Known about the structure:
Serine Threonine Protein Phosphatase 5, Tetratricopeptide repeat; mainly alpha; 3 domains; about 5% strand; 22 helices; four-stranded antiparallel sheet
Amino acid sequence: MNQTAIIKALHRAIETNNLQEIPKLLQLSATVDALINEKSPLHTAAALGHCTAVVLLLGAGASVQLQDKEGNSPLHYAAHEGHLAVCNRLIKAGAAIGSMNNNADSPLHLAAAAGHTKIVLKLLDSGANIALQNHQGNTAIGLACQHAQLNVLRAIDLSQPAYLLKNNAQNSPFLLALIALHQLQIDHWEHQIREGSKRCTYSIQRACFYIIPTIASVSNKALSRTAQKKYFTQNWFPKKQIDYLKQLNLLYYLIKKTALNFDANSKGLSPLHMACIIGEGTILAAILKHQRRLNPSYGQISALHLLACSGRLDGLRVYLNAATAEEIHHKDSKGWTVLHYLADAAGTVPMLHLLLSRGANPLIKSLEATQQFAKGSTAAQIAVARNNLDLAIALDSK
């Protein structure tokens, strides 16, 4: 058997965790670090979690620092896939804790993003730098916030300065978590099914499930978090809805447990703006308790304009509780009011009634033409153009 065949056989044995063949092939192989598909046998064993194979390869002289074409070391693979025993072996063999791949991600970055809490703690105990930033400027904490890894955040001391580090776009970890929630693009989602003799309403809007008994005299009861998790794993819930709730819970934790950074990023987008874009009432209420600036500007668009585009009545109600008359009547550079934005974003009639009750004027005309609307357009005319006839009728009746 020539060396090429031996190397291929060794890789296959590693993949299948054939512990009888691996020692034989290691004795025949001229090099233990031969690459196939840009990976060494140790990369493959680490990624698959084959701990005994890792021990055999290290004993045969495999390089614990070898990087693949993307710059990942065996420790990167083990940390990303969640193989704690393999990580322990590699660290004991001298793996570089702070080794960075082509994106400047360390094993700690990958473990935090994937939610492998025990590996995160092991890497930190072994000297990993929690403040290390990748090419986008994200720390491991920032990636955990982006990927809804609440258990990782609970295990880390978030009072340390690394939590406040911003990335290259000047996004704080808190703002990254808000952006991640928005990217899930779930505003209203509700479904009813039966659980035994009870009709259940599963509501994403409040991030919890309400049991509605068939007997009307019995009051509603919210399911516990443990019961919610049970339903997550046993019933029909799409992954996207589960991810939304996970991200929402992470944000609740950050608001309750950490010092929040309300600074805007390099584009002028602040956490308050992002909360208004999302429109999630519970998150918005929590932020407004800490940040009382109710009219930050994102370009020429006010926070209330952004909230009108969210389609969320709960968020609008929360914001208007503390809004000033100046905010409600604020116009952007085109002369658009909050009602123009509501009409353009297919807003709802209940949202309109709430804004009108606070003094919003439906008769105001725009000051400039846009690509789609002429100068002098009212909110009702925009609603008609958007085929939102219910809103247009409600606006015309005022």
